[in-house]
Amino acid sequence: MMESCAGEYAVAEYALVACHDCDLLFRKPRLRPGQKARCPRCGAVLFQRKRSGMDQSLALACTSLVLFILANAYPLLRMNIAGRVQEGSLLTGIEELYSQGYWEISVLVFVVTFLAPLAKMLCLFYVLLPLWLFGRRAPKAERVFRWMEQLSPWAMTEVFMLGILVAVVKLADLAALTPGIALYSFAGLMVTMAAGDAMLDDHEVWERLEAADG
Amino acid sequence: MAKHAITAAEAGYLLCHCCHLLCRPQPGSIHSRCPRCGAVLHRRKPNSLARTWALTLTAYILYIPANLLPIMTVTMSGRGEPDTILSGVKELIVGGMWPLALLVFFASITVPVLKLLALTFLLLSVRFGSHWRPWERTVLYRLTESIGRWSMIDVFVITILVAVVELGTLATIEAGAGAVAFGGVVVVTMFAAMSFDPRLIWDCMAPKDGEVSSHSRPEGAYRMQR
Ligand SMILES: [Zn+2]
């Protein structure tokens, strides 16, 4: 099925590219690392050659994964009201929402703060690691990388970090608060994931995936 | 620029949404997939206008309970009252936390409203084939698409409060139905922005025969930036 489908469409021309926002057709620009080409008609970024390579992306993904584990294994905050101590992590919050009967929000929060970021990191490893180590393409790597691109808008680690800050300020006059290991880990995770997004050159990955043999 | 700029669709090519490879349909094909990444190829996003309208209207409807129903109830030593999004902001102002109040107000009230208005405006402008400022409208679309996720802040605040504050008789925090509606608004508007196709803005702009396009900038094939 896949074979017959793929046969119906052919690669048009490697020298040409179109703007994804206004469909204008171009000759593909030749860029030096760090340069960006924008569409002259609508201003969308057409191409961007990043200065960093796959090793930086992989190193950041490794760091992110470690921080992600810490951020979910340890409590975010410890609070003390009149001598009674309570700790909470992201997962206890999701559990508590579920037990209060709001399964819709608990599923939503679970997906955007836990599942999507984790899946994104794992997909990146799956695609980049064999490519970087052996110059080979993992089975179905194209599909996994495509999923990763579609998943990206749903991974909301940096928004969650801002949510933690608002919650901390709201609780500050209610009780004595001690930030937990997970709070620092989330802050670090926000930075490493944003840096990873900024450094990953998806055009380069697609070209290398195409050139590598499976 | 002597002749008007040609689009991929006019040249008979399709751009893959996902890996940005330019593909050419073989004769006799209807729906197919990108030869490189396997994503389904479309000339334009399918039923873009109808889908975006449906999702935008759903979001408008959900927006009412999201603001009227309480998003959480904080109970301190047996007393407590339900909080809506707006009363949460008010409480931050009363507490003197101005920057935070502004942040929450911007993320939970301004962004969703502006997003809905922007989508409605884009849909109407495409519907009536407007030639008005296509560049600015495309930028508005890109902004709408990228800013939407920041509205989730309030939902996350509730999650954290619920996780930490559970001290039996001393204090409890319970989520409210408004939070479900509000989460729904954020998700539905994100889907609405994704289903809108900005190329429709430019499709209405295609000049008639003999007309010189006034919207192509003359500096060359593309602009380079350091
Ligand atoms: Zn463009």
Describe the structure.
The complex is a heterodimer of chains A (214) and B (226). With 214 residues, chain A is of the alpha+beta class. Chain A has two domains: 2-48, no CATH class; 54-211, no CATH class. Chain A is 58% helix and 14% strand. Chain A contains eight helices and eight strands. Chain A has a three-stranded antiparallel β-sheet. Chain A has a two-stranded antiparallel ribbon with strand order 2-3. In chain A, strands 4-5 form a two-stranded antiparallel ribbon. Chain A is elongated, with a radius of gyration of 21 Å. The relative contact order of chain B is 0.17. In chain B, helix 1 runs antiparallel to helix 3 (98-127), helix 1 runs antiparallel to helix 6 and helix 3 (98-127) packs across helix 6 (177-195). Chain B contains seven helices and eight strands; from the N terminus they run ββββαββααααβααβ. With 226 residues, chain B is an alpha+beta fold. Residues 209-221 of chain B have low confidence and may be disordered. In chain B, the strands form three sheets. In chain B, strands 6-5-7 form a three-stranded antiparallel β-sheet. In chain B, strands 1-2 form a two-stranded antiparallel sheet. Chain B has a two-stranded antiparallel sheet with strand order 3-4. Helix content of chain B is 49%, strand content 12%. Chains A and B meet through helix 1, strand 1, strand 2, strand 3 and strand 4 of A and strand 1, strand 2, strand 3, helix 3 and helix 4 of B. Strand 1 of chain A pairs antiparallel with strand 2 of chain B. The structure holds zinc ion. Chain A: It is found in: Cell inner membrane. Chain A: Keywords: Cell inner membrane, Cell membrane, Membrane, Transmembrane, Transmembrane helix. Chain A: The chain crosses the membrane at residues 58-77, 105-134, 155-175, 181-200.
